[in-house]
Each structure stands twice: as structure tokens, then as C-alpha cells.
Amino acid sequence: MTIDGKTFGIARRRREGGFTLVEMMVALALSLIVSAAVVALVVAIVRSNRQTLQATRLHQELRATLNLVARDMRRARSVGDPLTVALAPAGNPVGAIDTANLGCIIYGYEGAASGPWHIIRVDNNSVVLATNDARPADCADGDTTTRLGSPQVEITDIQFTPSTDAASEMFVREFTVTLSGRLVDTNPNVVQ
């Protein structure tokens, strides 16, 4: 527009490049919400992974301990010369298997290391194999003890349940062994 030879421009405000303060605050709030969600997801994944690893490790440790117990129990009542034992008036000297005490089994076999009588029980949160030369009176007896299993596992309970009755035990021996435990947390600083 021109007036008296002078040109005047209509003041038109042009928007400069950039964001307003409100737009910046909204963008910052949204990015914080998204970041918090991502961090929560990562923490949940790490926690779940740790729990899965612990459950797998506990299962493997209990299975290995149970395998040691089962392997030794399979030899219960065995003797070097079955014919001589069968003709002996007293019968098999290591014939009896005792599960009368809760959480313990007493059995024997000829040629066993550290004596023919073995006792398996929980002692100080560990499964132990105690041995004795003479038939033990109870589960607390035992000349020597050997820890079965890992020190990373606390054994909370062991049960020996005969699956056969007394009459059929002369021919068939079956026991259900139940082992319960938990992992000792060696690294409590890891996210739980």
C-alpha cells in the first residue's frame, strides 16, 4: 500500500521455525511416559528371566541329588554271593530296609563304601549319606557322613514312601522318594 509516495507493508507475522514452550512440554511428557513403559518392560523381562533360570537350576540340582539317592538305594540288600545268603539260617544280613523314621531311610548292602549300612536323611538343610559298620539303631547314627548335592540348594524335606507292602517286599522293592528344596540366593543384588 502506498500513501503519499511512501510504501507501507501490512504487518504480517510469519511464524519462525521451532516449537512453542507448550509443544516442548507435551513432547517431553510423552517421551517420559514411553521411557517409563520401556524401562518397566525391561525390568519385567529381566525378573522373569531370572526366575526361569532359578527354577531350572533348582530342578536340575534336585534331580541330580535324587539321582544319587536312587542310585545308592538300588543296591539295597544286595550281597556278593546270593546263594550263600539264601542258604544261611539268618538270611540276608542286610535284608531289612527301614523307613520307620520320618524323612530317613536305613538300608545296607555288602561291599558298600565305609560300611555296609547306609542312612539317608536331611541334616543342616542338606541331604547326607551316613554310613555305619553295624546296623544303626536310628537315623541319627552314622560314623561318617557325605553331603549329596550342591551347597547352592537348601533341602527342606525328604520323604521315603514304600510302594509295596511287607509281604511283597521279599520280591519287589519300590520306594517313592520326594525331595523338596529351594535355591540359596547367592546374588541378592540382582533385580528381583
What can you see in these coordinates?
With 192 residues, the chain is an alpha+beta fold. It is built from two helices and eight strands, in the order ββααββββββ. The chain has helices spanning 21-73, 82-87; strands spanning 2-3, 6-7, 104-108, 117-123, 126-132, 144-148, 153-162, 175-183. The strands form three sheets. Strands 3-4-5-6 form a four-stranded antiparallel β-sheet, covered by helices on one side. Strands 1-2 form a two-stranded antiparallel sheet. Strands 7-8 form a two-stranded antiparallel sheet. The chain is rod-shaped and about 145 Å long. It starts with a strand and ends in a 9-residue tail after the last strand. 14% of the residues are buried.
Helix and strand arrangement:
Elements: E1 2-3, E2 6-7, H1 21-73, H2 82-87, E3 104-108, E4 117-123, E5 126-132, E6 144-148, E7 153-162, E8 175-183
Antiparallel strand pairs: 1-2, 3-4, 4-5, 5-6, 7-8
Portion of residues in helices? 25-40%
Please tell me what the overall shape is: rod-shaped
In the predicted model, the low-confidence regions spanning at least 5 consecutive residues are none
What's the main sheet like? 4 strands, antiparallel
Strand content: 15-25%
**Order of SSEs:** EEHHEEEEEE
> Total helix count?
2
Summarize the structure.
The protein has helices at 21-73, 82-87; strands at 2-3, 6-7, 104-108, 117-123, 126-132, 144-148, 153-162, 175-183.
Relevant terms:
two-stranded antiparallel ribbon, 4-stranded antiparallel β-sheet, alpha+beta, 8 strands
